[in-house]
C-alpha cells in the first residue's frame, strides 16, 4: 500500500514501509501551517524557500536528503533525480530544477518539482513508465495549467495529482487548478480526496485533486 498526502505547494508525504517527503516548506513563509511530519527520505527539487525551508522540520537523525541528480537506493526505495530548469531560459531566470522518480511497491511516482518548461521526448523516455505524476499547474513560476495538461498526456500516467497552485491562505502569486482541469484530456476522470491510497493502479485514468493537510 502506497499512500500520498499533500501539504501545499510541492510538499507530499509518500509512505509505505518508508516515508518520503518532497519539497518541505516551513508553513509560515508561505501563509500555510507547518507540516507535522517525520521522513526517512527528503527530496528537494531546488533551494527556494517554499520548497526547502522545512527540511529540518521533517528530518530525524537517520533521514537521507536527496538534492542531486543521479540514482540512490535508500531503505528499499529507488530514487532517481533528473536535471531540468525552473524557467524557459535554461535556468537563467530561476535556476535549475530536479525531477524525481520514486519507486515504491512496484509503483513509480514522478515529482516534477518547479518545472518551468516543456519536456522533450528524450527526457520523457528517461523517466520511464510513470504510474503517478505529481505536476505543478499554477503558472507564473512554473508551467501553467495548459502546459501541465500537455506534459501529462505525453508522460501518460495512470494517475495525475496537481500541485503548486493557489489555495486558501497561500501567499504565493500563482493561479488555481482550473486551467489544468479544463485542459486535460477527458479520459482522466476527476476525483477529490483527502488522501490517495494505492494497493494497485486504477484501471481507468484519474486526476486526483488532494485536499491540503495544512
Automatic annotation (TrEMBL):
InterPro entries recorded: RibonucZ/Hydroxyglut_hydro
SUPFAM superfamilies assigned: Metallo-hydrolase/oxidoreductase
Membrane-spanning intervals of the chain: none
Highest taxon in the source lineage: Archaea
Protein name as catalogued: Zn-dependent hydrolase
Amino acid at each position: 500500500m502506497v499512500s500520498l498526502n499533500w501539504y501545499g505547494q510541492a510538499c507530499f508525504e509518500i509512505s509505505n514501509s518508508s516515508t518520503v517527503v518532497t519539497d518541505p516548506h516551513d508553513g509560515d513563509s508561505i501563509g500555510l501551517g507547518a507540516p507535522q511530519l517525520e521522513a526517512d527520505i527528503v527530496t528537494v527539487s531546488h533551494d527556494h524557500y517554499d520548497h526547502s525551508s522545512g527540511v529540518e522540520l521533517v528530518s530525524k537523525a537517520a533521514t537521507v536528503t536527496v538534492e542531486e541528480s543521479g540514482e540512490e537506493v535508500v531503505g528499499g526505495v529507488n530514487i532517481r533525480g533528473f536535471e531540468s530548469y525552473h524557467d524557459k531560459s535554461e535556468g537563467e531566470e530561476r535556476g535549475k530544477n530536479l525531477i524525481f522518480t520514486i519507486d515504491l511497491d512496484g509503483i513509480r511516482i514522478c515529482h516534477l518539482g518547479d518545472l518551468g518548461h516543456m519536456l522533450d521526448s528524450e527526457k520523457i523516455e528517461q523517466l520511464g513508465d510513470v504510474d503517478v505524476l505529481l505536476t505543478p499547474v499554477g503558472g507564473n513560476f512554473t508551467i501553467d495549467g495548459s502546459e501541465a495538461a500537455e506534459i501529462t498526456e505525453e508522460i501518460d500516467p495512470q494517475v495525475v495529482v496537481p500541485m503548486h497552485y493557489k489555495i486558501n491562505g497561500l501567499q504565493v502569486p500563482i493561479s488555481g487548478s482550473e486551467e489544468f482541469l479544463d485542459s486535460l484530456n477527458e479520459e482522466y476522470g476527476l476525483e477529490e480526496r483527502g488522501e490517495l491510497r494505492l494497493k494497485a493502479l486504477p484501471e481507468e485514468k484519474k486526476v486526483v485533486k488532494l485536499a491540503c493537510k495544512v
